[in-house]
Amino acid sequence: MDWRLMEDSFDAARITHLGNTFLTGNGYMGVRGALEEYGKEQLAAVNLSGIYDRVGAGWREPLNAPNGLITYVSVNDKEYRLPGTEPLSHTQELDFRHGIHTRRTSWRTEWGRLTATCQRFASMDEPHLICMRYRVETDFAGDIAIHTGIDGDVWDIHGPHYTDIILDSDDDRLTALASTGEGKQVAVCAGFAMAFESESHTSTSGKSIMRQEHIHARPGDIYTFHKYIAVYTSQDEGDPLENAAACARDAAFAGYAGAKAAHCVRWEGLWDLSEIDIEGDDEAMGALNYSLYHLHCIAPRPFDSRSIAARGLSGQTYKGAVFWDTEMFMLDFFLHTEPGVARTILQYRIGTLPGARDKAKEYGYEGAFYAWESQEGGYDACSEYNITDVFTGRPMRTYFKEKQVHISAAVSYGLMRYADITGDLSLLVEGGAEVIWECARFYLSLLLKRFNGQSWEIRDVIGPDEYHEGVDNNAYTNRMAKYTLDAAIQAIALLKDTDAQTYEALDRKYGLYDSVRSFQEASESLYIPVPGVNGVIEQFDGYLSLEDASVEDLRARLLDPREYWGGAYGVASQTQVIKQADVVSLLWLFRDEYTREILKRNWEYYEPRTEHGSSLSACMYALLACHIGEPERAYPFFMRTATADLVEGGKEWAGLVYIGGTHPAAAGGAWMTAIEGFAGLSAEDGQIKINPHLPEHWDRLSFKIRFRGDIYMIDVSKDEYRIDKMGE
Amino acid sequence: MDWRLMEDSFDAARITHLGNTFLTGNGYMGVRGALEEYGKEQLAAVNLSGIYDRVGAGWREPLNAPNGLITYVSVNDKEYRLPGTEPLSHTQELDFRHGIHTRRTSWRTEWGRLTATCQRFASMDEPHLICMRYRVETDFAGDIAIHTGIDGDVWDIHGPHYTDIILDSDDDRLTALASTGEGKQVAVCAGFAMAFESESHTSTSGKSIMRQEHIHARPGDIYTFHKYIAVYTSQDEGDPLENAAACARDAAFAGYAGAKAAHCVRWEGLWDLSEIDIEGDDEAMGALNYSLYHLHCIAPRPFDSRSIAARGLSGQTYKGAVFWDTEMFMLDFFLHTEPGVARTILQYRIGTLPGARDKAKEYGYEGAFYAWESQEGGYDACSEYNITDVFTGRPMRTYFKEKQVHISAAVSYGLMRYADITGDLSLLVEGGAEVIWECARFYLSLLLKRFNGQSWEIRDVIGPDEYHEGVDNNAYTNRMAKYTLDAAIQAIALLKDTDAQTYEALDRKYGLYDSVRSFQEASESLYIPVPGVNGVIEQFDGYLSLEDASVEDLRARLLDPREYWGGAYGVASQTQVIKQADVVSLLWLFRDEYTREILKRNWEYYEPRTEHGSSLSACMYALLACHIGEPERAYPFFMRTATADLVEGGKEWAGLVYIGGTHPAAAGGAWMTAIEGFAGLSAEDGQIKINPHLPEHWDRLSFKIRFRGDIYMIDVSKDEYRIDKMGE
Lengths: 728, 728
Known about the structure:
Chain A is α+β, with helices and mostly antiparallel strands. Chain A is built from 19 helices and 29 strands.
């Protein structure tokens, strides 16, 4: 397959989209696929993982580092840069096997042709480093200048975050030390290696420092320089500026070719275990591996305890916060290919237990109520006003933060799944069991019983389908609460067998025996909606009595294309149209508890009523379709999921709020659909199982996975499949 | 005092307002204070009690009878009628001691001056009858014509209701028999008695039938005729058209003077017991008695089982439906002055128990959930979409119908109060006790307990303050639910003592012993919010954490003066600003359970945060202010209540929905404030008590009341008060 993504012309309207599509990254930072001459207007950004800041009453969001990429050329003082100056030719290319971004652009100047070429990568070998090779050539003799530096006037959604920026320079480097109102610091050092004679001049202007290299260019000569951009923050150990300077210096010393080689070796190592081969469908194979590329770019590999934001490292959208997406949609990929990353992701939840406890307390509950939009320390960045009304311009009160209670179950699910897939119980011992315990206590405190009632109910929640707010007995939520209660009992039993000391400490803290009895009672009497006469499970109390309008009906009712479909008065709110898989997610997760007929009935009932207004939706429909043996039905949903970051026209607005960026949950969902759907991988009693349902036109699907410390090569073809254990 | 309301000029902008202010009525029908020449454009209407109809998907609303008042004059074929032709002089007068409406208008014609005078009344002696005396005079000789008839093209909010109308005439009468889509019929017969020679001509056009009387007028002569307009509907016994014809004929036979005398005698009889005398404040006395006038006009005296609509008989606003207003704000006046009317009102609730049971079942509850907007049979006319969004023109989903659960408590309260004030237990025996029992069962089925909770809660309701939807543990609602549970136990005990047979029948039906135990347990453990550290009772869970904005702040935030303040995104929704008395209503009702200090603290906390956007609000503040001994604070709220139908500028819109009309709950609230507030009347252990707090400038307040079969004359002055028993 072709591991290159190519653009061979320039279209200013696609700048934002390409910023996401051509993203490179290494888990520490994401470098938007912006061209080197871009500024904040073109959403150029080096987005940082897990460092947040708030300005005034704005949303708290992650920082974009001062942009060390900024570079452009001028001829006789006339600047040549996109999108301002129309090019003669332009190509932009991403090698997504190695995370290398290349552009080549020619302009016709009044003196002749000017060509700039740049290759760059965010080093997978050194997560603080971006390496760049920039080349200029002309077919005329003339005075050209290369302008390159650090642009501290960065793109911010709720900024500006940098209240102070200290700029400095010496012969072969520029530095910027930017400070925020919260006192966070980001240091950027750009080191240079020039392979030509030039006259240098450095200047600062506002928040930017720029170096001009003046060259008497000769026709046909190529003027190359390398730039080593190192980024450190005050959240990293040590002095950020010193560390950045040392990193840039070391890189310059090693040289571009060496850095690139080390970077590529790392990438090859990742693909060795994660590459998926599909015979008979190059398009699907390309899209799927491209999805995995994105997951690799944002995996929090450099950290011990860090998770992945809902829009990865593609910018400040969704506040750079961690949602349930990570555990429910991305985790499986890492569990089966790079368990260390899965551990880091779950360690983040263990580390943010205090925040989850605080949130539970704030809302009058017990235990752990995890943040809907989690930032550092478990701080819930979710605003009470997430959407702007397009008609009034007013913020709309939303309840994602306080009513999407299924988040704590997602965390518990992830922890249990880690133990199950990796066979490693250490995470449960080192805090994981307590997290699940606290989540179970949270659900216990949510339960309500009527005066003459027999069962416990969960009321006034938002399920995965966010268009219906404050519903009672959401089937998904109730079942996941029951799951959590059961998981707590199970986790504590595992803990007792594994580490008596930790068990006893928890017992002293919680009185495990009595609690287990409560959990059991609650789990047994928790109301779980069952299929009705037509086999359909009602999404929540009263759902089936709502108007049975179609998605198209609703679209026709819109007065403004950007208006929000949910909330109190959205076009979907009083209808059966849902944003995303809800009952179908429940059925996928608990597929063994229902007959094929019930699974199929519900798939067929809910799919036409689903807007798929979230990138989390299609993969659930794809997965369940595979499970009921209908891969052809699954296929379009799989492709939709796998191409979420390739195709344009995705949902970029909720009300007046920009929600664009990359879609790592869809990428994870694509992996799940291929492996757990089409190949039908599952684990039972410590053994992996395969139950393939390949699309008709796929001849073969092969991949590797890790399971309980071993690596397996799995090869599925039309008539047979093989599972080969390859050792650790 | 002056019992006349006067207008001495004509202002077209005030037509709608005067239609309410100059209303006459007799409980069977309300005749809007429209001029005789008005049509539906000027909201002329003869609004009928308790007969409803629905057109298509529109709101179900009461019928306006074909308008038998329609009358105007022409000179040489040129019509003189308001508001079309500017008058020379115009007076409109209401004698609100006797419910007699008079107008006198002169026009300058090109031939000279033309004057039309009309006096009319809706007979308090014969509820199907409106009598009218019309006079024309000129100061010139000329051909004039009097046009008079029945206009079937009536004002409808969600009409047209009449799909068919049969018009007929003979020498001295016109008839109209109008039929609706639901098959309801309204018959109108207009009988005439002419005191002059004329040439008659009758014609029909569309839904109207008109008679023209052509006169060769001589200067200074007065041409008088009487019109007897009889109205019967298919809900009355017998053939409506025959009955109407007979009624009009009998009235014509008896003559106008006789009918007027009989009418006035009835009114004097009403005032004999209800007139209130205030020395030192003619304005207050006038407004108060004018309020009582409105209550008299709409009292369902002609019926055995009928209640009062929220906008009385002033039109189709609020669908002519019965709200909690009747029991909580109007009932006390009738209990103390005309208990038969109170009985009729409560009989309506007993009769609509089946509807309340159906509604409870519909929402998954037990017992009786009374209609929020009750029409015949207890049908809940409350729409799920009560308000139109001013920004989008879309209907907004509202939850008054399903969440304002305090309605059943209001019904129970009314029934218990009837027994307490009248001493008559027959209503409890004849269905009242069962109603209360069913209301208690309803509240029982609402109760929820947390897994580790000790008390029962009521969640997801709307309290009296409708701006905050779906709140938990509204203090008013919870306390009223407890009241109902206690009342059920008490009512059943009274029943056992009074009528063993009925008691046993109920016992067989419900198993009273076990239920009483449940009611007791629930009542004891029902969570009632208590005063916090600052003495303030939180209106509902979380209320005190909402933004503490002022009413003025919110007004400044409005983008459209008509926009709805409540619902999900209204300006008040996320603030502490409330629509109307909520906690203060609770405190007034249960004033004996709190210290004066607590009552005062809450009054002072909530009053500045109350928009008083409902006519039910001010009187509660007035009553509680009296009770804490601050009549000067009460006075402006009292005056606001007593003048609700006199002053212009009241709230006439909720979103895009017209909500204007008369305000009988405010009228009832004015009575309560005078008698139970300023005079401090209460009953304890079967005895009446007086605890006066007169405003400084009131020298004396005297009135009569009925209590347990006796009539008392009560006379309160600055330093003393007297209670004189006057016999039955």
